[in-house]
Design goal:
The chain is mainly alpha-helical and 477 residues long. It has 21 helices and two strands. It is globular and about 100 Å long.
Length: 477
């Protein structure tokens, strides 16, 4: 019995994730099996450590559509069960191990919730619940930042994203995934286990950015890095998304610059073949690459048309008259929401309520505009304080310490400038800042020993050369 308990403690995460992978695969073919996932999560949550529950929830993120049957609320039910497990362990840690409570964070979050409920009022309870649950998950990510492994979280995200991408390729055999097939201008876009390709791309690009950071800090082996990176890139490319293409290029360029600054020209031994592999994949997937270029060209023409003043003004007037409800593109959305603020200045301060869209069910596709419209300026300031606290209260004196983190999070912020998807991946930057703050991305003993040996070899060679020069000089004399 004791041996079984020790075995469970040691391998519980691998066992649970492996069983979940099997269950998700079965649900892909038999949609009714999703209820088994719900009961399994409920059962194991009672016995798992907090960090293991986190990894389980993270693994399930990219399969939201797969286990959404028989009810859409099943996704939230599974997340809620996971949160209850974390809260249970949190209370035990407080009572038994005297864990410190971050009262200031809970107070600010409570003020934010009271403000959202009372002042602008909630217009869509399901979207509000999504915000609350993901924010609570982010709070506990901060509370357990010392126990959670950033590298492991990124690896689990990569594994589950690749798995959801593989499932999508065989979507014709799945009633659920096939019903969520995303068609845009005659182009089928990969969505993985999500409803929209942009959500898949958001998860994907942050995971790629995290993989690059872990590789840069030598926290992941070359073999693992290449498998996860290439898998994420291939499926991200199949999403045929401007957002993904733009953010991917920026991420890779930042990564290369960081390597060149740290390792000098020696880094070209990695950069050049790595770039060649990416180009080769794009050429091998020529049909997808060609569709991406055509899509970018078509959308650029559409954006050029919809960014003209006459169109924007006419569209806004039609929206206000209740005559139009279609998506006018990002320029049209931004203009419409900004014009609405000018015509309704009170909304700038108090907002219009969570989930109260101006154009059908289409948000502004910008994180600042979205929150300004939902919360108002007052709510946005409270929310900004909450987010900064979760990031450990970034201080100006430590700004250079975080420089590498800031650079690798550029794709995260750029994606938020084009999409309102902040909460889904908020725990990634929270943990990244926490790990850097605590100097946890240090070289391990083996790596330090290897570098010392290499350095000693270099010094020994210099000493030998100097001795030879001295001997040559003395022989000449």
């Amino acid at each position: 019995m004791i041996k079984l308990l020790d075995f469970w403690k040691k391998y519980s995460e691998i066992i649970v994730l492996s069983i979940l992978a099997v269950f998700v695969t079965i649900t892909f073919f038999v949609k009714e099996f999703s209820m088994v996932i719900l009961f399994f999560v409920f059962a194991v949550t009672m016995f798992l450590k907090t960090e293991s529950i986190f990894y389980m929830i993270i693994f399930l993120f990219p399969f939201q559509v797969v286990y959404s049957y028989p009810m859409a609320g099943l996704v939230y039910a599974i997340l809620m069960i996971g949160l209850f497990g974390i809260i249970k362990n949190y209370i035990v840690d407080i009572m038994k191990y005297k864990k410190k409570i971050s009262w200031n964070i809970y107070l600010v979050f409570a003020i934010l919730l009271v403000y959202i409920i009372i002042i602008p009022k909630i217009k869509d309870s399901s979207i509000f619940m999504h915000f609350v649950m993901k924010s609570v998950l982010a709070i506990f990510a901060y509370e357990y930042r010392d126990k959670l492994s950033f590298v492991k979280i990124i690896e689990i995200f990569a594994l589950s994203l690749i798995m959801s991408g593989v499932m999508w390729l065989f979507r014709i055999h799945s009633e659920i995934l096939y019903s969520y097939e995303f068609l845009y201008n005659g182009i089928i876009k990969l969505t993985g286990g999500f409803e929209h390709p942009n959500i898949f791309c958001f998860y994907n690009i942050i995971t790629i950015s995290g993989l690059l950071f872990c590789f840069y800090k030598k926290q992941i082996s070359v073999q693992k890095f290449l498998i996860y990176f290439l898998g994420c890139f291939i499926f991200g490319h199949l999403a045929i998304s401007r957002n993904f293409a733009l953010n991917f290029v920026i991420t890779i360029l930042i990564f290369f610059i960081m390597l060149l600054i740290r390792d000098g020209l020696k880094s070209l031994k990695f950069i050049l073949p790595f770039t060649a592999v990416i180009i080769l994949i794009c050429l091998l997937m020529f049909d997808t690459t060609n569709k991406l270029f055509l899509h970018v060209g078509n959308v650029y023409e559409f954006d050029e048309l919809t960014s003209k003043w006459d169109f924007l003004e006419k569209y806004y007037n039609e929206i206000m008259a209740g005559q139009k409800k279609y998506d006018p593109g990002r320029f049209g959305l931004w203009y419409t929401y900004l014009r609405f603020f000018l015509d309704n200045p009170i909304c700038i301060f108090i907002g219009r309520g969570y989930g109260n869209f101006l154009i059908g069910q289409t948000p502004p596709h910008n994180i600042v505009l979205s929150h300004l419209y939902y919360f108002g300026l007052i709510g946005c300031l409270i929310f900004a304080v909450f987010v900064l606290m979760l990031h450990g209260g970034i201080k100006l004196k430590n700004i250079f310490k975080y420089s590498e983190v800031f650079l690798m999070l550029v794709p995260y912020w750029l994606f938020l400038a084009l999409n309102p998807l902040l909460y889904d991946m908020m725990l990634v930057p929270i943990l990244l800042f926490a790990k850097v703050q605590n100097n946890e991305f240090k070289k391990d003993d083996k790596q330090e020993m290897y570098e010392m040996i290499e350095e000693n070899k270099y010094q020994r060679n210099i000493i030998i050369k100097l001795k030879k020069l001295k001997l040559e000089k003395s022989s000449k004399k």
